[in-house]
TrEMBL record:
Keyword Nucleus listed: yes
Family annotation (SUPFAM superfamilies): Histone-fold
Full protein name: Core Histone H2A/H2B/H3 domain-containing protein
InterPro entries associated with the record: H2A/H2B/H3, Histone-fold, Histone_H3/CENP-A
Main location group: nucleus
Occurrences of domain Core Histone H2A/H2B/H3 (ranges): 2-66
PANTHER family: HISTONE H3
An example Gene Ontology CC term for this record: nucleosome
Source organism phylogeny: Eukaryota, Viridiplantae, Streptophyta, Embryophyta, Tracheophyta
Subcellular compartments: Chromosome; Nucleus
Length: 71
């Protein structure tokens, strides 16, 4: 339910009358989880490369930059 509420809140920022099928919410949640798992895997690789066991925000930034998600 929290994820569904988040999706609806974000949707209301641009459109007032959007409706979502339950399968659409599930698909969005699965896609978001898959993205985050992959990002954290890449982030962990960046931390390991720096000879650390703890991930840091700079690892997330580096992982996103390598992926081409941000400059």
């Amino acid at each position: 339910m929290p994820f569904q509420r988040l999706v609806r809140e974000i949707a209301q920022l641009s459109h007032n009358d959007l409706r979502f099928q339950s399968h659409a919410i599930l698909a969005l949640q699965e896609a978001a989880e898959a993205y985050l798992v992959g990002l954290f895997e890449d982030t962990n690789l960046c931390a390991v490369h720096a000879k650390r066991v703890t991930i840091m925000s700079k690892d997330v930034h580096l992982a996103r930059r390598i992926r081409g998600e941000r400059p």
